[in-house]
Design a protein that fits this description.
Elements (H helix, E strand, L loop, with lengths): L1 H5 L6 H7 L1 H31 L4 E8 L2 H10 L5 H4 L4 E7 L3 H13 E9 L12 E8 L6 H4 L6 E7 H13 L9 H38 L3 H4 L5 H11 L9 H11 L7 H28 L9 H12 L1 H6 L4 H11 L11
Parallel strand pairs: 2-5
Antiparallel strand pairs: 1-2, 3-4, 4-5
């Protein structure tokens, strides 16, 4: 306890310890419960974001530090401090797009008991320059039952939602340490206001780009069976759509990382349009199943069993069959290379349909 009292970050503590020691004791007693509450709330939010396929940058959490708690005690008069201070436990959800904030709000409504909702807007520059975020005060819902949650049910947690750009602004603003407009030189005020407008505009632009990408993906889906589809350039979205067209009966690959990896391998090999991939897939088609069967045997021998080959895997193997350079860029295993070289010696089978 002496270390806490003497800490330079808690210079107010001796005075508080003299006047209101019961508040400090109660804070230290409750802090572990707020830490557990943070972990529970963050887990529920992250799980819900994944289930709803909502992309996000980060979900962070913190319990208010002792010096911050004491500073609030010093600054305000409380009748029931642990019910009036609602942000002892705090969660921050940083999403990518402004439209996702509404989706996150729905999650909060569904998963927790909402006590209060506050929008702190950057137009209130006398309070905090450039700051914008939605704040929700929540408690755990009735579905959180049992001994694990009994000590957490009555505690409140503040959830903040921001976009990446809003969060970047808040971080920089915090380090500038300007809390009131009257403290800021007039020239800096104008520059800060302009920058705030730029970031708000950038948020809207990112939202527009997202909508344009969704429209592009819908266009790919509509034209996938047409001739114009194969004339399209290769990019992540068109490549995914091509894999679904080339092998419609195969399981769909859902991991974006795998698509990006194959695209990287293809990059130096001058595959520019989907028609280039289509030629490779058609050329490999007569022997593709045979190669996959032999590759499966090799993988089982190595202790790896693949029950089904995704559409992306089939395109990747087709490229390895038809392009020796792709084997090098993709760093194909020696066992796979050995299978491919066997079929290289019987080129008459390439491009010809079976039986």
């Amino acid at each position: 306890m002496d270390n806490i009292i003497q800490s330079p970050k808690t210079s107010l503590l001796p005075e508080i310890w003299r006047d209101k020691p019961e508040f400090v004791y109660e804070y230290l007693k409750r802090k572990p419960y707020y830490e557990r509450l943070c972990l529970e709330v963050a887990f529920v939010i992250e799980n819900a974001l994944r289930e709803r396929n909502i992309e996000y940058s980060a979900v962070t959490h913190r319990v208010k530090e002792l010096d911050s708690f004491i500073e609030k005690l010093k600054r305000k008069q409380y009748k029931d401090i642990f019910n009036e201070i609602t942000d002892l436990a705090g969660i921050r959800v940083i999403c990518l797009y402004t439209s996702d904030i509404k989706k996150i709000e729905r999650i909060i409504h569904e998963e927790f008991n909402l006590i209060e909702k506050v929008y702190k807007q950057n137009s209130n520059k006398s309070y905090r320059l450039g700051y914008s975020a939605m704040h929700f005060i929540v408690r755990l819902g009735d579905e959180f039952s049992g001994a694990r949650y009994d000590s957490l049910k009555d505690l409140t947690c503040e959830i903040q939602t921001r976009t990446v750009l809003q969060d970047a602004w808040a971080v920089i603003d915090h380090h500038l340490m300007y809390k009131q407009r009257s403290l800021v030189p007039e020239e800096l005020c104008r520059r800060i206001d302009n920058l705030s407008d730029v970031l708000e505009e950038a948020d809207m632009k990112f939202e527009e780009i997202r909508k344009e990408r969704h429209a592009y993906v819908r266009k790919l889906e509509k034209t996938r069976s047409s001739r114009t589809f194969l004339a399209m350039e290769i990019n992540l979205d068109s490549f995914k759509a091509f894999c679904e067209r080339a092998f419609p009966e195969a399981p769909k690959e859902t991991e974006i990382t795998y698509f990006n990896r194959v695209l990287k391998w293809m990059e130096p090999l001058h595959y520019n349009h989907l028609k280039d991939l289509d030629r490779a897939v058609k050329k490999a088609s007569p022997i593709l199943d045979d190669v996959i069967a032999e590759l499966g045997v090799v993988m089982v021998e190595r202790g790896i069993e693949i029950k089904s080959w995704t559409n992306l895997a089939r395109v990747q193997i087709s490229l390895a069959i038809t392009n020796k350079e792709f084997r090098n860029t993709s760093e194909a295993s020696p066992g796979f290379i050995k299978i491919l070289e066997k079929y290289d010696r019987i080129p008459e089978k390439m491009g010809k349909k079976k039986g």
